[in-house]
Automatic annotation (TrEMBL):
Residues 111-259 form the Fido domain. It comes from the Bacteria. It comes from Micromonospora fiedleri. PANTHER family: FIDO DOMAIN-CONTAINING PROTEIN, FIDO DOMAIN-CONTAINING PROTEIN DDB_G0283145. PROSITE patterns: FIDO. Pfam families: Fic (PF02661). This is Fic family protein. Signal peptide: none annotated.
Length: 334
């Protein structure tokens, strides 16, 4: 049961679909990377930082930004940490481009085995050059399937024997097509099932978590949704959700994906795409100075110009929020 003030799981899924529908109706959907480089750059930095941090990478966000934007390895971290981020970022950039501006790789399917192997190759090659897996055969280099058995994970899940990986992954690719069909099960929960099944197959000797999250971004992009960044603060929640999915309960994982997608729409996409007059939901206008809760109170009291829609959602514009912030500052100074 959700705690006091915490939305139900069904409400979380509903909010995700409403957010993406608003993005499509107001701004035409996801912007192309070539048309909105700044937006995608912010998402790129965040995903490269948080997804590698989940695996134990020690670079902080500022170090990630310097590495990716300027090619500078500031700080005194292990070389492998810089190479992990560099590889993940290369793969993420390829994923964003292929999701929205597909080239020859796209064959009409949501994802292919060839793309999965290429994503893993891009993500893992830089770190592999300085810190290869100590037990890897030559045939298990980045982009190649494992030829080792994998020990049982915490919680009890045991990946399948390595000779079964190729056929299982091809079957997994076929199951991704079910994401295009209508279902009573929320999309984010079905994505959680798909993401978990990839991790169960565990096709590579190393880097399956990173590859799985990148593939999740590719699937989301091709379905018209932004990436689901799993933040390092949610690492324990993410791992627990995967363990619950091991036992047949994908609900927590689906909820985590839905929250992330919704948050990315309001944090990165709507604020950057909206001009001073666009009416957008209050979460897209919140910042460190004015939280969503503060804006909602101001709107309900008539201090912030805003419109409450038939769906119960308050919407305002950047111009109206700036106007309110100015009058608020003057009231506080008076």
């Amino acid at each position: 049961m959700p705690g006091p003030g915490r939305p139900s799981r069904a409400e979380v899924h509903r909010r995700m679909e409403e957010a993406v529908q608003e993005l499509r109706n107001q701004f035409g959907g996801l912007p192309r990377p070539g048309e909105a480089a700044d937006i995608w750059s912010d998402i790129w930095h965040q995903e490269a930082h948080h997804s590698t941090a989940i695996e134990g990478n020690t670079l902080i966000l500022h170090e990630v930004e310097k590495l990716l934007d300027e090619g500078r390895a500031i700080g005194a971290k292990p070389l492998r940490d810089y190479m992990e981020v560099r590889g993940y970022a290369d793969a993420a950039k390829w994923v964003y481009s292929q999701a929205l501006e597909p080239g020859d790789w796209q064959d009409g399917s949501l994802v292919s085995v060839q793309e999965i192997r290429h994503i893993h190759y891009l993500a893992m090659t830089p770190v592999w050059t300085v810190a290869p897996h100590p037990h890897a055969f030559d045939a298990e280099a980045p982009g190649n399937f494992r030829q080792h058995e994998i020990a049982r994970f915490p919680g009890g899940m045991k990946p399948p024997p390595w000779p079964e990986v190729d056929s299982l992954l091809r079957s997994w690719v076929d199951t991704t097509e079910t994401l295009r069909t209508n279902s009573d099960v929320p999309l984010a929960e079905r994505l959680g099932v798909i993401h978990h099944r990839f991790e169960v197959v565990h096709p590579f000797l190393d880097g399956n978590g990173r590859a799985g999250r990148l593939i999740l971004s590719l699937l989301l992009g091709r379905l018209g949704y932004p990436p689901a960044i799993i933040y390092k603060r949610d690492r324990s929640r993410y791992l627990t959700a995967l363990q619950r999915a091991d036992k047949g309960d994908p609900g927590s994982l689906g909820e985590l994906i839905a929250r992330s997608v919704t948050g990315n729409i309001y944090r990165f996409l709507m604020p950057a795409a909206a001009d001073a007059t666009h009416l957008v939901p209050l979460p897209a206008l919140a910042d460190n100075e004015l939280s969503e809760a503060a804006l909602r109170v101001a709107a309900s009291r008539g201090r912030l110009r805003a419109v409450k829609g038939d769906d119960g959602v308050w919407r305002s514009s950047r111009g109206w929020v700036e106007e309110y912030a100015g009058t608020r500052w003057r009231r506080e100074r008076a």
